[in-house]
Amino acid sequence: GVAVHLQDLTRTYGATRALDGLDLSIEPGELVALLGPSGCGKTTALRILAGLDVATSGQVLVGGRDLTRVPANKRDMGMVFQAYSLFPHLTVADNVAFGLRLRRTSTSARRARALEMLELVGLGQHASRYAAELSGGQQQRVALARALAIEPSVLLLDEPLSALDAKVRVQLRDEIRRIQLEVGTTTLFVTHDQEEALAVADRVGVMNAGRLEQIAPPVDLYERP
Ligand code: ADP
Ligand code: ADP
After folding, report:
1. Whose CA is nearest to atom 22 of ligand 1?
2. Is the Cβ–Cβ distance between 80 and 156 less than 8 Å?
3. Domain ABC transporter spans what residues (predicted)?
4. Atom 15, ligand 1: residue with shortest CA distance
5. Which residue's alpha carbon is at the smallest distance from atom 18 of ligand 1?
6. Which of 35, 44, 190 to mutate to test the pocket of ligand 1 (most atoms within 8 A of CB)?
7. Strand locations in 63-146 (E)
8. Rounded distance, CA 203 to CA 217, Å?
9. Tens digits of per-residue pLDDT, 15-42?
């Protein structure tokens, strides 16, 4: 079975064709990195999968369900963006629990789930600190914990490491991979950084001008028959 299928997606903004017939399938539990230069349509693809943008044509299938016209809040996606997405004046635990507030869970169950997720990302001991007190890398771990807390059908990572310095970027990249393998969440990771894509992904999809040029495991990517 296929977990995610983006089918012949186009998206135009006036005269700009952000997506021009994008086809992409992701297997259950797989981490696919979408790689490509700025402006090639990576973020547009991710936003359409998230329900934050609407395709001009084409379909979005998740777990065999057609979500093309399903709004973002009914889609069950976990998202991590570039940076600054936490509430700085909430504690780390409250930030993680925030995503669970609309679900039918008790305060204590939300709290327990938040702590479990913070242990997973190695921040259990920081649960009671304010988000603003953490480093950029730690804040991104919290954002990851928050995204995973809802047990998303798909985890969407949009340049989650771009705002971090080089050393932290490599550490967190490896950490994201470890956690993703442990949890087994189907993941789409958008990046313009080739080394990063090759290091984290089961398969790397190379985008150009709104479509997928090739998609392959990192070891096969630059070998042409
Ligand atoms: P990437 O994520 O690969 O940098 P994007 O998906 O952000 O690319 O953008 C693809 C193209 O669509 C770019 O030319 C961008 O300027 C354009 N674009 C994206 N969003 C909008 C928008 N809301 N309005 C107009 N143009 C947009
Ligand atoms: P990224 O660089 O991560 O792809 P951008 O900074 O390009 O993201 O886009 C951030 C937001 O601005 C998105 O909502 C995108 O749709 C919008 N956007 C991008 N390009 C344009 C554009 N040319 N005109 C209007 N909105 C845009």
Report:
1. 13
2. yes
3. 4-225
4. 39
5. 18
6. 44
7. 65-66, 77-80
8. 4
9. 999 999 999 999 999 999 999 999 999 9
157-176 b/e with 16+ CB inside 10 Å = b?
Answer: bbbbbebbeeebbeebbebb
Counting atoms of ligand 1 from 1, which one is nearest the CA of 40?
A: 3
Provide long-range contacts, Cβ within 8 A and 24+ apart, for 52-56.
Answer: 53/11, 55/9, 55/10, 55/11, 55/19, 56/10, 56/11, 56/12, 56/19
ipTM above 0.90, yes or no: no
Q: Which two tokens stand for residue 92?
A: 């780390």
Please give the backbone phi and psi of residue 170, each rounded to the nearest 5 degrees, phi first. Answer: -70, -45
**Amino acid identity, residue 51?**
G
CA distance 22 to 115: 39
